[in-house]
Amino acid sequence: MARIVLVHGIAQEQRSADALEAEWLPSLAGGVRLAGDAALADRLWRANTLGDLETRMAFYGDVFLRAGQQGGDDELTGAEAELAEALAHEWLERGTESSRESDRRRAESALAVLAGQPGETQGARAAARPVLNALARLRPFARFGAGFAERFLVKALRQVTRYLTDDAVRETVQRRVGEHLGPDTEVLIGHSLGSVVAYEAAHRLDRPLPLLVTLGSPLGLRTVVYERTRPQPPRVPPAVRRWVNLADADDLVAARPDLTALFPGADGVLESGRTVDNGAKPHDATFYLGKRETGSPIAATLA
Fold it and tell me: For residue 144, what pLDDT is reported?
């Protein structure tokens, strides 16, 4: 069993546990080094990851691969379409809090226009397109255009909703995480959808977990995530002794950086509302891991 367990987010179906470990560990060590513990950073990365600080990636990306899949299905139907619009609107609302004035104005203008449009739908994709076009003008989507924004939203929505609504998928993912959790586990780190997975995995523990770290978490997304987490109603996992939640101010996925009011039992456990600056890639996992704000609680827990 690992002392540190990592849980990735969406769109990793073409990767592997080994590749993600190799990508995340240098950044994790870098954040610990910035926090002032060079010796621990060396043990995490430059020594070896299978010693006394075994760190493992709980990989579940392949769960979302479908047999014979040829590049993915971009169509949304039924409830997925409704959730797509709701998710996009939450992201646009998050854009009104951007650190960039241009993004704030674009998001506010887009929301005002969308509020005045009739509620007719002409197919799932057509209904979501105005929102997606508005998102495409915000960072981090602007450099990729509306096509990328639409594909990203579709993939994000499909994987998030499949995890939250398909019991077989949820149990498979939780089993993958549980394989690495044991009496020696001290730190559980989840990014993006992985933060939801990690949060639910912490609820299943029957022993103390010293530290839960959630990065770029969508746990505050009421329309898609919050009301579908388990168990309900949401609350701080009883086994968790300290929970640190970090969000970039421009990370649209982290729709509500401060989770404190949403999770009963947060007093003295949940440290939320902290913001970091990930530059041009506000949702990037390795950028989150490499921050002092991430490394400091990890170093304190493992000291």
Answer: 58
Q: How many domains does the chain have?
A: 2
Residue 297, preceding peptide bond in cis (omega within 30° of 0): no
**Residue 249's CB: how many other CB atoms inside 10 A?**
16
* Stretch (H or E) spanning 274: strand 270-276
Q: Is the pLDDT of residue 13 over 80?
A: yes
Least Cα distance to 299 among 244, 262, 235 occurs for 244
The CATH number covering residue 192 comes to: 3.40.50
Q: Please name which of 115, 123, 125, 165 lies closest in space to residue 149, comparing C-alpha atoms.
A: 125
Q: From the centroid of its chain, how far is CA 119?
A: 30
Instruction: Give the whole-angstrom CA distance, residue 208 versus residue 220.
Output: 24
Query: Do residues 36 and 176 both lie within one domain?
Result: yes
- Do 293 and 263 reside in the same domain of the chain? yes
pTM as predicted:
0.86
Q: How many residues does the chain have?
A: 303
Q: Tokens 């506000």 — which residue?
A: 282
Cα distances (angstroms) measured from residue 261 to each of 20, 36, 193: 33, 31, 20
Residues 106 and 239 in one domain: no
Cα 287 to Cα 111: distance, rounded to the nearest angstrom: 30
Q: At what angle do helices 78-95 and 101-115 cross, to 10 degrees?
A: 140
DSSP β-ladder status, 211-215 and 187-191: parallel
Which residue type, as a one-letter code, is found at position 94?
R
pLDDT in tens, 229-279: 999 999 999 999 999 999 998 888 887 789 999 999 999 999 998 889 999
As a whole number of angstroms, the distance between CA 179 and CA 177 comes to 5
Does 188 share its domain with 258? yes
Residues 203 and 191: their CA atoms lie apart, in Å, by 17
Is the distance from CB of 89 to CB of 114 less than 8 angstroms? yes
